[in-house]
Amino acid sequence: MKIKVLYLIAGIIFVAGIAGCILALSAPKTGVVRISQNGMVVREIDISKAEDQFIEMEFEGRKNLIEIKNGEIRVSHADCSDKVCVNMGRLRSGIPIVCLPNRLVIEFAENDFDAVVN
Amino acid sequence: MKIKFAFLIFALLIFTACGSTDNSTEYSKEFFAMDTYVKFTAYGENAEDALELAEKRFVEIEAMWSVTDESSDIYAVNHANGNSVTVSEQTADLIAYSLQTANETKTFEPTIYPILTAWGFTTGENRVPSAEEIKEFLHNVGSERVTVVGNSVRLEQDVQLDLGAVGKGAAGDEVIQILRENGITSALLDIGGNIQLIGQKNGADWRLGIRSPFGEGTIGVLEISDAAVVTSGNYERFFTDENGISYGHIIDPSTGYPADSGLASATIVASEGKRADALSTAVFVMGLENAAEFWREKRDFEMILILQNGEIYLTEGLKERFTLNLAYDRGVHVIEYEN
From the CA of A69, how many Å to the nearest CA of chain B? Predict the structure, then answer.
C-alpha cells in the first residue's frame, strides 16, 4: 500500500514537472510581436497593450487578415489554398506563425535574443 | 525498493530541472554615457558590487576620451597648438592603437574629426561642404601627423583627434577586465549596440540579434560567447539633402566624402572590443572585396557584411554560429579562407 502511494506521488510530481517545463519554456518574455513581410519588418506591436483590431496585409494581390483580440494575435483569414497560418491559431510560443505563399511572418519580437547588435 | 526510490528521486529532479537553468542571480546597470545608452548585465554572487565598479570606471574613461569635455585628455591634445601633451597611460595606449590600425587598414582614420565637423555630423547641423572645403580639410587629416612617445602625445597644427570610432570598444575592454578581476564569469555589456561578452549565459552561447539595416527588425541571430560584436552602418546617422541624396556619417578618409562601398552594414566579431569597434568602421569603408582580402590576411576576426542590395556575406568562422531570420529571404554567401 505504502509503495503504491509512493508511486502515485512520484507520478504526480513527474507529470507536474513536465507540464511546468513546457509552460516555462513556451511562455514569451514580452508581448511585443513583430509582423514582417518579404523580409521587411512591417510592424512591431505590443499585443498585451494593443486594442482589439484587424490588420490587413497584402502581397502580390493576396491578402491575410491578422486579428488582435484580448491580448492575443492570430491570422483569421488568408486567401491561399493551404491555410496553414490560419490553422496555427494564436501565437503562443517562440514558434512563429508563417504564411509562406504571402511571405508573412508573425513572431514574438524580443524573447529570442539576449541583445541586439546595431 | 531501491528502484522505486530512484524513480521518486528522478521525478523530483524533473520537477526542478527547468527552473534551475538560471544558475545564479542576474544584476544589471543602465545609464547614459559616451552619448549613448549603456546596459551592463552580470551573473553571480559578486555581480552587484562588480557592476558598481564597472560603471564608475566607464564614466571615468568617458571623461578622459571625450572630444568636447574641456578637462579630457583628448581635448588637451586637440588644443595644444602643436605642442606635446602628457596624457594618461590608457589614452596614450589607445591613441597608439588607433594609429597602428589606421596604418594597417588605410580606411580607419582617427584624425577625420575636422571633416566630420564640416559635414555637421559632430554638431547636428548637417550640410554638404564644397569640394574646395573638403580638399582643404583633408590636408589636415592623416595619422602620420600624430606622434606618441611614452605618455606624451603631439599633433601637428590644425590636426584633431577623435577616438569615437574605437573609444566605446576600448572602454568595454576596460570594463571586461574589471569584471573579470572581480570574479565575474558571465556578463553582457551593451554599449549603445556594441555588445561585449564574458563567458556564456547559463552554460550556452549568448544569442545576439543582428539588426537589419533596412528596417526595425533583425536579419538573424548570432550564437557566441567570450567575444566583442560591433556593427557599423550608415543607417544609424545620416542626412538627406534637398535633392534627396543621403549622406552617411562614416567618411572615407581617402576622399573626405561619406563611404560609398556598397555596404549597408558591417558587423565584426573579435576577441577585443577596440578591435571590433575600429574594424567595423574600417571594413565598412573598404567594401566587400577589400574587406574579404583583409580578413584572409589577418584572420583575427570574423565578419557579417550586408550589401545595399540586401545580400549577406559572412566569413567561414561564423557559418555555424549564424542563423538567418525566417522572414529575411535574400541570399547568404560564405566568404571562405581560400579564395
Answer: 24
